[in-house]
Amino acid sequence: MKAAIVTVGDEILIGQITDTNSGFIAKALDKIGIGVYEMLSISDDRLHILSTLAFLQNRVDVVIITGGLGPTKDDITKTTLCEYFDDHLVRNGMVEAHVVDLFEKVIGREASQVNKDQALVPSKSTVLHNAVGTAPGMWMEKGNTVFVSLPGVPYEMKYLVENEVVPRLVTQFERPYIIHKTLLTYGQGESHIAERIEDWENNLPEFIKLAYLPHPGRVRLRLSARGVDEAMLRDRIALETEKLRGLIGDIIVGYDEGDTIEVVLGRLLAEKGKTIATAESCTGGRIAQLLTSVAGASAYFKGSAVTYSASSKVTVLGVPQELIDKYSVVSAEVAEAMATGAQKIFGTDFAIATTGNAGPSKGDADAEVGTVYIAFATPQGIYSEKYDLGQPREKVIERAANKGLEKIYQEILKN
Amino acid sequence: MKAAIVTVGDEILIGQITDTNSGFIAKALDKIGIGVYEMLSISDDRLHILSTLAFLQNRVDVVIITGGLGPTKDDITKTTLCEYFDDHLVRNGMVEAHVVDLFEKVIGREASQVNKDQALVPSKSTVLHNAVGTAPGMWMEKGNTVFVSLPGVPYEMKYLVENEVVPRLVTQFERPYIIHKTLLTYGQGESHIAERIEDWENNLPEFIKLAYLPHPGRVRLRLSARGVDEAMLRDRIALETEKLRGLIGDIIVGYDEGDTIEVVLGRLLAEKGKTIATAESCTGGRIAQLLTSVAGASAYFKGSAVTYSASSKVTVLGVPQELIDKYSVVSAEVAEAMATGAQKIFGTDFAIATTGNAGPSKGDADAEVGTVYIAFATPQGIYSEKYDLGQPREKVIERAANKGLEKIYQEILKN
Prior knowledge:
Two copies of one chain form a homodimer.
Chain A: E1 2-8, H1 10-13, H2 21-31, E2 35-42, H3 46-57, E3 62-66, H4 77-84, E4 89-91, H5 93-107, H6 113-116, E5 120-122, E6 126-128, E7 137-142, E8 145-150, H7 154-172, E9 177-186, H8 190-196, H9 198-202, E10 208-215, E11 218-227, H10 230-248, E12 252-254, H11 261-272, E13 276-280, H12 286-292, E14 301-307, H13 310-315, H14 321-327, H15 332-346, E15 350-356, E16 371-378, E17 381-388, H16 393-414
Parallel strand pairs in A: 1-2, 1-3, 3-8, 13-14, 13-15
Antiparallel strand pairs in A: 4-5, 6-7, 7-8, 9-11, 9-12, 10-11, 15-16, 16-17
Family (chains A, B): Belongs to the CinA family.
Pfam families (chains A, B): CinA, CinA_KH, MoCF_biosynth
InterPro entries (chains A, B): CinA (IPR050101), CinA-like_C (IPR036653), CinA_C (IPR008136), CinA_KH (IPR041424), Competence-induced_CinA (IPR008135), MoaB/Mog-like_dom_sf (IPR036425), MoaB/Mog_dom (IPR001453)
């Protein structure tokens, strides 16, 4: 069973926007055993859309189209679908009621006629309810091929893929079972991990595939088993996961696909009834933002002092001015005083503090670009480490935030 | 003149890797007036590659292919090119010498036979020298179409595009001029903007296209003019931009492609020599993180108190406990006291404060999910506004952060 993913929109073709939708959809399809034959990005051009649909109809079972569903003139996907299906637009009452409601309750003004026209859909289409936006998804069939049209706004597309498209595909098509297991590791690179698990990997059965999904500072390992006997696949995946735990248990922090270091850390803190705060200079609130991106964070995250200026490190966190004068703001001593200060003012068990130079040029202190001190305050005491996190700016911030969370996680485990 | 960009490799089709090469190439081509007709990602499959090349030959002037040039078995682009061009591989002495040299000097070991075989190229191809890697680029022509094959490693691809491909295309083809202008607007939706500029949009000349690029809380408008008379295009884009300023100047905050609200706000604060701080509850540090994502933010951003717990609002920001008891933590009164507190402890001209319920469930206070109070402290005084920002959690946080920055920007403009 094969699918094609089509992105409609000039902004991708001139390189202004990177298409991340196709990758998301490909992952979702891969999980349910549907292979992607081809991904295409084409322009908001009627003839181009028509010829692409015709081309793909003979080649795949499912065509998923994103983009071109907005209310403005350059959005022509819907009328072009009508042309391809020899159909016409009709007003869908449920969609219109939803649009009117969304405008009233969320946007706080009345929906205009243009907004209400989002409710115009091809008469032959099945509407896919878009709870998080105004443009509905549409499901149409021609010959043996399913065509699904989705809005290009990533979170609306994601909502529809997860809640409407995948469940319908699973019901409508027979596919092999695919069982995935994703493990989250922190602190070691892809090639290092590959060496540690080489023998195990070489002895994996044919029907299990291993993929390395690397990100800065962390690597996900995904095991995928494909076959007809679901129970056997589950048992074998569980067995291989156990073997992996034996080999690299020291760097595995999570066993679920949604696991990130902030999710795992939050779960651990909540379980232990412990609390955390941060004091951030060069990370500028990124660690706090990661921690609070998790629902329910208020149970264990108490707050953060983002002390970007030197004076606020003194006034807000109580870092002694003498320390700054003697060692400079980018130093182990100041990082540790910041962490202790955060622990104190927020009254928490643990605290992380960062001070460094994220670049692009040298700041107040003489520290090289990429130099970051991270301090870790625990009930047992305080320590800090110095890191050279390279460049550019956004990578330094990201690496420092991940490193801080990874290290404090190890500390919390001990408590 | 039209181009197509083809990416070869299974890792993109299963969503493991996001294709950023195509966007880079598209931008480079767009700059020299070559429009991209289509982008495709296809598998490492001989027949699929052959049919794609044949399909594109009739449609575009230039086909740029990346990927599948590595030394391993699954890299078949080169042999497939030979098949398409009815050609055979020959050993290129210059490339082999370069590979041997690169291994000796950079990698520090002798090149193996597999490495040396990177010097095998189709006999009809023009070799494009890859100074930063072992796989050469290849330039071939069939009919009126140029086919360029490049390695998929991003920095090698970039080197070849900039140093070999673009210079050759500029010499070989006559192209039109393309002038872009991107405007950043805040605070109004795509459809609302479309209504306000409808007459103007309807009267745009044929050679200028308008695109709406929406994100939560902001919309970019991109004007693209294409033609042979560069000076005329520039003049007309300037004229239309002026007209737009007249129509929607109140919501335009930036006139450059890299402009975001945090960049524009930072520029304004730096120009005026003013400073800012934030006090964040429900946004959890997101506003601070946005402000500090801009290089040089330390000139105007002093810090943030992320007071997630009620008690830290009292101890860190000096919010009176009575206010919290009387109005609850999610209230206009507490938001305003937080903003005043931030202004005071960080010693800044401006401050933004947020308190609300980002969801998914009701928190400490009785506030509905999505309810957020944002307070704005200025040298003239303090005020706050109540917003219903819907759901889910990450959207509430993102909308509140954008709304806070947008509003304070308007305040700073007045000062």
